[in-house]
Amino acid sequence: MTASMTTRTASPTAPAPTTARLAHITPNWFTTVMGTGIVAVAAAQLPVGGHGLRLLGTALWAASVVVFVAVTVAFALHWHRHRDAARAYARHATMAHFYGAPAMAAMTVGAGTLLYAAPIVGATTALLTDAALWAAGTAVGVATLIVVGVGSLRRPDRGGPAAPTRMMSVVAPTVSASTGALLATHIANDAVAHLILVTAAVMFATALVAGGATAVAVFRQMLRTGAPLGAAAPTVWIPLGMMGQSITASVALGAASGSTGLHSLGVGVGVIFAGLAAATIAVAITVTARAALRGLPFSMTWWSFTFPIGTCVTGASALGKATGSVAVDGIAVGVFAALFVAWAVVATRTAVAMKRGDLPAAP
Q: Pick from 95, 192, 188: which is nearest to 134 by CA?
């Protein structure tokens, strides 16, 4: 889920060759963490289990932690050593929206820690780590929504030709909602758990308003100017992330509320978003297929094939569990298989490109 990165343009500060890579460690690099972490989280929530699946999820969670630490350090150095370039990227019409990516990366790693790390570091450490990452991710996500997301609604052209990237600045609150509901179920203190649930519910409501308005603006812009082309085409999958997270969050919040009525409402809202997700997938497949026929060069935008699809797995798993539907459970397993293949391809292509030094650096 990253911005189009198709050319090796010079950074705004024209860094020396030895530090050129740090000049381009922009927030969209956190999508590598999101894409890896969501596979682990999705694996833990599938309606099927098994030792092998648990090992796979644990390995992917561990990988997401390593990548998260590496990208965070590199991003901090980017701001320290190339401040002018960092500020230029922060003002960039497309790149600014990706400040939602660090927030979502933190919460995804936190959720994975809660689901996998207890046998390794202890239940208390895993819980506290998730709580800290959730709180930090929620704060950064809200700040990005206010500063970048709301600002883009005031400027209809914000985001340029790759309009779907605008969703990156408004999706984070839905991740706060779904991961917050998960976190609350592991907290023994009722008052703290209730506070987290209320915060998660507020995040969900905020995302519905801001995300809904942004999604309408995005699809309206695509109808007017056309869907993203070339290396930017995969970004059309980004809006799917909001749909999948909304399914997960609505069902999880309803279940965590302890109210039969709210649980039923959550399932109903989840079904509505499932329909929207199906329509979004149809559009995304059409746009991607058209781009592939014309030539779809590899770039960091390919990470858009991972996190959004992963949220559909967690959403389908939640709906299947809530409704007892074997068919929905089957969809969750099938989509997970597609997700794992997509992640494996994108992660491999990214690693190879980085090793060769030919990964496009900046938009």
A: 192
